[in-house]
Description:
Number of domains of chain B: 1
Oligomer: heterodimer
Structural class of chain A: alpha+beta
Shape of chain A: globular
Radius of gyration of chain B: 15 Å
CATH superfamily of chain B: lambda repressor-like DNA-binding domains
Shape of chain B: elongated
Amino acid sequence: MTNNRVDEVTIQLRARQFVASSATSNPLNDLEIYAKAVNAILRYEALGVNESGYTMAKPGGKQIIVVNSDESMERQRFTICHEVAHIVLGLSSRHEHVPPWSLAKRDPNEIACDIFASELLLPYKGWLQVVPDDEPSVSVIQTLAKRFTCSFHVAASRYASLATFPCALVTMDRGGIRHAARSTPLRNLGAWITPRSSVPPESIAARLRDRGESGTEQGEVPQDAWFDEWSESDPMNELARHNAKSDSTLSLLWFSDEDMPEREVDRFNQRYVDDGGLQELTGHLPWPGRSKRK
Amino acid sequence: MPELGLGTALRILRDRRGLNVREVGKLSDVDHAYIYRLESGEKTNPSDEMVVKLLKTLKANDREATILRWLASHSDADPALVVYAMDNDVHPDAFMMAAGVRHRGQARPDPATLIKRALALLEDTDDE
C-alpha cells in the first residue's frame, strides 16, 4: 500500500511537471499541445464500439495517436491524455487480459496512465482556482465536468482526490468495488476501502443497484458501513449514481464538519495515542537529582 | 510457458526448412536445448551472435531477418501477429508499428486490421 501511494504521488508530480513544461495557457480547449510535447500527432477515425483509440510509432519516432471519433468528446479527451501518459511514462499497454465483467485489478500501468491523464485533463492549479467551497452535490460535479470537458466520473474522482476534507469516490462494477480515490485528509484518518470487496449492503449504492434502475440518490450512511476496521458508526454523506445498463455505480462519500471522527494516524497507518505529551516547562531542571555527587 | 513472438518466428522458419531443433542446433553450432527454450518462450533476448547464426541456418530473407532481429529485443510481441506477418509478406516497418501498438478500450483488432492500420499511417505523410 505504501509503495502504491509513493508511485501515485510520483506520477502526479511528473504529470504536473509535464503540464508546466508544456507551457499551455489553455489546455481546456486544446490538448494538441500535450501531443506535440511528446512528438505525437492526433488523428480521428471511427473505430467502432469498445475501442477508444490506439497509438503507433512510425519508424522515425513520430507517434500517431488515433482517437475514436464515434465516442463522446469527454471520452476522446481522456483517451488523448491517457495515450500521452503512456508515451511520457514509457509504459506499455496491458489491459487486454481484464475482461469488462471482471473485478480483477486493472494493470498498474493502466492505473498509472489514468492518474497521469487526470492531471493533464484537469490541471491541478486550474482545478483549485475553480472548485467551489459548496457542499458536494450532483450539480457541483456536473459544473466541474462541463468546465473541464470530462466525464462525471473523472470530475468526481478528481474532486475526491483533491478535497481538503475527508472525501472518497468509490467506483463499483457489478456489485463489486473496483477502486476508491481518497482525499489526503481521509487517508490521514486511516479510512481504507478494500478493492474487490462487495458493495456494503447498508450503502445507498447497494440500495440503488437493488432497484435495478439508473438513478442518483443522496443521503446519510453509517461510517463503518464503508471503511474497514472502523469503530465509529456516526453518519456520513453518500451521493450515489447507478447506471443500470452497464451495472456500474459511483459513490461520493464525505464527512460533514460535525461528523468528523477524532482519530489520526501516522505515516505507518498507526493511530496516534494521546499519552499526555511532554510535561510543561517550569524553569526547574529535573537533573541532577538530590543525590548529587560532590 | 506461453509461446512468444520470437519463438513463433523461429519455429515458422525452422518448419519451412523442414528441420528439427537438433538439426538446427548442429548446423548453427548452437545448443539445441537453448533453441528449444527460445522457441518455447522459456528464454528471451538472445545475443546478436546467436541470432546471426540462427538466421544463417534458417536461410531467412532480409524481411524475415529484420523482423526476427526486432523480436529478439521485443519479447512481448503478439505471436498471432508474428504468424500473420510471416505468412503474408508484411513489410517490417508495418509489422513493428503494429507489434508496438498501444490500445485503449476492451476491443482488440485482429492482426490483419492492425497491419492495415499501420500501412495506412505509413502512407500518410501529412505529419512529416
